[in-house]
Structure formats: structure tokens, C-alpha cells
């Protein structure tokens, strides 16, 4: 099934929706990137094949042509109406909502998971700290998700390696850097398994 392009709350959303989707996965991009990175596309293909609806969200600042995201508070405020609008679409209200993204997008998803009503979070290449600056930890943002979280991190990522936790699984991709361009099949399979897992389905 071909995806549809939607304009929602100043964001641009590419929604791929298989028949009778059993979950809704909403993913967004890194700070200066878009929604057509290799990892997001691999996850899209695997998700649709597994009966998961997936929305890839180009955030408003990127739609406006800016490469640098706004501060966390306005960025989060722009993200939440997009997720809420997708949730209101027919057939999505009663399936698990999983939010996530890569890099800066993962930070947004973690910070807003509770407010968005997400059942779980997928954090791709979570930037635990700026390269070479481990003292500038963003672990508090990852912890703020407050729900089951899957982190997918390359073992060569200069932004650090997040720790596993009671509600957090960390999949380490050998040979991958911050782009997660290696191990695409592994990443996509892990995300699908997580979204369809009993621990996520139980949180509808």
C-alpha cells in the first residue's frame, strides 16, 4: 500500500498504513535531517510488512527550511499536536501508540512520551552527550520517557552509549556509527519485535 502525505500542525507527515494495523509507530528525524534516512526507511518497510502503521514526521522547523531545531520547549510543543492528530485518525485510537525518532528526534519523543500518551518509545542513536563531552549527559531525558523504551545504538557512535535500565532495552549494533546505516535489517527487526511485544500491547 502506498503511503499518503499529510500536512498536520505545520508538520509534514508520510503515513504508511497497512490494512487493520495493529499499532501506530510515529517517528521523526535528527536535528538537521529528514525522514528518508536509511534506518527510518528500513523500519518503515519492516513495520508495514508486519501490519504496523508508521508515520514519519518532518517537524515544522524543517518544513520551514531551518536546519537547527528550536529550544526543547517550543520543539516539544510543536510535536505534541502532530501526534495527537494522528492518534485521532480512524482506527488509531485503540491500538498501541509508539513514538520515537533518531538522535534529536529521540530526545523529543522521550521528553513528550507521557504527555502524548505513548505506550512505548523507540530511540534510535540517542545522543547521550555531545561528542567528547560525557559530562554533558542527557540521560535524564531518556529516563523521562516513563514507559518501555528500546534504544538502538551503534557501537561506534561518538554521542555515547546509553545504559540499559529496568524499563529500557539497549540494542548495540556492531560497526554502526550515529547514522545507523549499518545493520539496517537488525535495527528494523528489533523495532518491529518491540512494537509488537506483549509488554507494549498491554499498554493500550
TrEMBL record:
It holds the Pfam family Abhydrolase_11. This is KANL3/Tex30 alpha/beta hydrolase-like domain-containing protein. SUPFAM superfamilies: alpha/beta-Hydrolases (SSF53474). Residues 23-181 form the KANL3/Tex30 alpha/beta hydrolase-like domain. It comes from the Bacteria. PANTHER family: TESTIS DEVELOPMENT PROTEIN PRTD, TESTIS-EXPRESSED PROTEIN 30.
Amino acid at each position: 500500500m502506498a503511503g499518503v502525505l499529510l500536512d498536520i500542525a505545520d508538520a509534514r507527515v508520510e503515513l504508511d498504513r497497512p490494512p487493520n494495523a495493529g499499532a501506530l509507530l510515529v517517528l521523526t528525524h535528527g536535528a538537521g535531517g529528514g525522514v528518508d534516512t536509511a534506518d527510518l526507511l528500513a523500519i518503515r518497510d519492516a513495520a508495514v510488512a508486519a501490519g504496523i502503521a508508521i508515520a514519519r514526521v518532518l517537524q515544522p522547523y524543517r518544513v520551514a527550511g531551518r536546519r537547527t531545531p528550536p529550544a526543547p520547549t517550543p520543539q516539544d510543543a510543536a510535536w505534541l499536536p502532530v501526534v495527537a492528530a494522528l492518534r485521532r485518525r480512524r482506527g488509531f485510537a485503540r491500538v498501541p501508540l509508539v513514538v520515537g525518532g533518531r538522535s534529536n528526534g529521540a530526545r523529543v519523543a522521550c521528553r513528550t512520551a507521557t504527555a502524548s500518551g505513548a505506550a512505548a518509545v523507540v530511540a534510535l542513536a540517542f545522543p547521550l552527550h555531545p561528542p567528547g563531552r560525557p559530562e554533558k549527559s542527557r540521560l535524564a531525558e531518556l529516563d523521562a520517557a516513563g514507559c518501555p523504551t528500546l534504544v538502538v545504538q551503534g557501537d561506534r557512535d561518538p554521542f555515547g552509549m546509553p545504559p540499559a535500565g529496568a524499563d529500557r532495552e539497549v540494542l548495540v549494533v556492531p560497526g554502526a556509527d550515529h547514522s545507523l546505516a549499518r545493520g539496517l535489517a537488525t535495527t528494523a527487526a528489533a523495532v518491529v519485535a518491540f512494537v509488537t511485544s506483549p509488554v507494549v500491547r498491554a499498554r493500550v
